[in-house]
Amino acid sequence: MGENFYEQERRQELGVAGESVGRYTAKTFLLMFLGLLVTFAVSFGSYATGAIFYVFSIPGIQLILLAAELAVVIGMTAFLHRISSGTATVFFFLYAILNGLVFSAYFLIFELPSLILVFAATALYFGGMAVFGYFTGIDLSRMRTVLVGGLIFLIIANLLMLLIPGLAAMDRLACTIGLIIFLGFTAYDTQKIKALYTYYSRDEIVLRKASIYSALQLYLDFVNLFLYVLRIFGKRRD
Questions:
Q1: Is the distance from CB of 176 to CB of 232 less than 8 angstroms?
Q2: Is residue 160 classed as helix, strand or coil in its secondary structure?
Q3: Phi/psi of residue 197, nearest 5 degrees
Q4: What is the pLDDT of residues 36-81, one digit of tens each?
Q5: Dihedral sign for Cα atoms in the order 17, 77, 127, 150
Q6: Looking at the DSSP assignment, which residues form a beta bridge with residue 236?
Q7: Distances in whole angstroms, Cα of residue 54 to Cα of each of 4, 75, 204, 221
Q8: DSSP string, 18-79
Q9: 3-state class of 189 per DSSP?
């Protein structure tokens, strides 16, 4: 006997994957959290074992790590439609590991209690905006142009502050703007998870890849929020 009307409606609501948008969103956030956990484990492990000193003694390691991170992110996003969801997941955690090596330096620069407080503040900011993005009825897609424009402004401003020492005094202002921008990105990317679920709900394979892509976007939002909060409130070692 075929499905009755109500069974068909429920199947359409849940999508081909057979899970609700709430469960799909939760799985995406779980993947993001696991990425952050890997980053923390690698960064703290490198600091606690002293491996950080060996890593950063390699000539040009900062540029090497930066190039590797860019290659992983660009490769993953550019070829997401061609690679399997398993490969995309490997790329995601590879980026988290590379970022962990980069972040290990912050344990040498900032005091540990300060890092913990900044992480807690970042989690609070991020969580609040994620809840807003998920439950709001406002269409946040209209914010994209403003957010991307703000991101370009931040990139240019940071480059100018590096090249022109006199502009370094504007660092706190740039950090405040960056904090606002990535709070906006957090809400926007959270809402986008629901949009991607609706759009790809009939294609389970693409839906899984979209979840990994969204987890990466949220991971980057959290990391950037953390860095800007750290630059504003972080207490450096003497």
A1: yes
A2: helix
A3: -60, -45
A4: 999 999 999 999 999 999 888 889 898 999 899 999 998 888 888 8
A5: negative
A6: 110
A7: 65, 28, 44, 29
A8: T--HHHHHHHHHHHHHHHHHHHHHHHHHHHHHTHHHHHTTSTTHHHHHHHHHHHHHHHHHHT
A9: helix
The owner of tokens 């740039």 is: 174
- The pair phi, psi for residue 236, each rounded to 5°, is -80, 155
Neighbours of 212 (CB within 10 A): 23
Tokens at residue 124, please?
Answer: 């609070």
Look up the pTM and report it: 0.89
Whole-angstrom CA distances from 50 to 36, 37, 46, 157 are 21, 20, 6, 34
CA distances for 42 relative to 38, 98, 222, angstroms = 6, 9, 17
- DSSP designation for 83: S
DSSP letter (8 states) at residue 236: B
**CA 74 – CA 102 distance, rounded (Å):** 18
Q: What is the pLDDT of residues 151-164, one digit of tens each?
A: 998 889 888 887 88
What CA–CA distance (Å, rounded) separates 33 from 22? 16
Token pair, residue 164, equals: 């022109």
Contact present, 181 and 158 (Cβ < 8 Å)? no
Instruction: Give the CA radius of gyration of the chain.
Output: 20
The size of the chain, in residues, is 238
Residues 65, 94: contact at Cβ < 8 Å? no
Residue 34 Cα distances to 30, 123, 134, 218, angstroms: 6, 14, 20, 12
Ranges under pLDDT 70 in the chain = 1-18, 168
Amino acid at 31: L
